[in-house]
What we know:
Helices cover 62% and strands 0% of the residues of chain A. Chain A is built from 9 helices and no strands. The N and C termini of chain A lie far apart (81 Å).
Amino acid sequence: MPPAGHVPRAGPEVSQVAGRVNKRDVVLRESARLFAERGIEATTMRVIADACGIQAASLYHHFASKDELVAAILTRSDAHITGLYDAILDAPLEPADRLEAMIRATLDNFVHHRDAARIYYRDRAYVAQSPLLTRVRDNAVAHDELWDRSIEAALAAGRVSPRFAAIDLRRLLQELMWSTARLRGDAVSADDIVHVLLHGILAPEPGL
Amino acid sequence: MPPAGHVPRAGPEVSQVAGRVNKRDVVLRESARLFAERGIEATTMRVIADACGIQAASLYHHFASKDELVAAILTRSDAHITGLYDAILDAPLEPADRLEAMIRATLDNFVHHRDAARIYYRDRAYVAQSPLLTRVRDNAVAHDELWDRSIEAALAAGRVSPRFAAIDLRRLLQELMWSTARLRGDAVSADDIVHVLLHGILAPEPGL
DNA sequence: ACAGTAGCCTAACGATTGTTAGGCTGCTAG
DNA sequence: CTAGCAGCCTAACAATCGTTAGGCTACTGT
Lengths: 208, 208
């Protein structure tokens, strides 16, 4: 039996310099999927390594710790959604249109960073206490403030049902939106979700 | 220093036979809260024991294992929601009314078993594989079928927007409903949630 | 009065956790 | 050709996990 030591690569692809299959990206993708599905603490480094076809110790050549791996996943997603929100902040939009644009931005983030969104949504207690996620948390606070202002403006303009208090509606809307990150992307379209949030599931009254 | 051995009870309450403070119920409540907040696997038996003011080993006088503790929490909640669904199944309701009744039953379960609902919603992978939860899983399948039939009936009656496929709408509705179990109970009323799901957040058009 | 037991304790078990140490291989820059 | 390093390996570490063993205490029913 040969001393093994190094498993030969399966395909003819060269190292990641050629840009073919960057193992770091594989680790990011597989771990994000597992974290989202089973939870951060329930997903061990060895399970992640198995999914990537390497040994647990080898993960530490790409990320210094499990926390840093989680942070890398969430920071990516945070940068994306922050960019979208910044664009909305600068755009001259009417209250209800701004609200819809923010909903669509949130849902768009699910398309590009679905697993990250699910992790953020699911393991909130972890996110709240990780020292590597202060930036993400600070941005989240800013996002919440933008949501609050936008909802208050839409309420003041009479475009949103007056039965809601602004802050309660923000939390309700966020929970409702974030929960849709758990759906398979091809099942329900963003348009459908926006429609439900704005108009509900019922058909327009026929007899009116 | 006294040999300690047994910490004297704080209050004058007698054992649980008198029904004052049943420690088993305390364990159920505290563990449910912790499981819901941090996840099942992230919540250790020692943390649960701390929250109950006892030692980790003492938990095993009330529950044979961590799995059984989880099962006890979820089985309670399952019995409640199953009873509600059974009543709806027997009631002669029009499609849209039945759908609303099912939404309200689900939300009512959140009031009585909020943490259990959050655990079921959050740790789906765990629920799917626990050998002690076959009964709960079987009931969930039956509930899904009731949902599917009710949605199909409401669709056929033209009471639900035809843009949705029945099964996709069921999954969407479930995610939306379940996500509201994460909200503090006093923030948004069940009526508000029902209103959003049925009619959305927008105010009725003023100029029509 | 006394046996039985519910309910808690301390101490420890083996398994698994995240992580580190140290070495081998094969690519790449000079 | 060769030095260096990226990338992976095996082996092992201390800490923590769920769980068990065994004993003490205080209440119960007879």
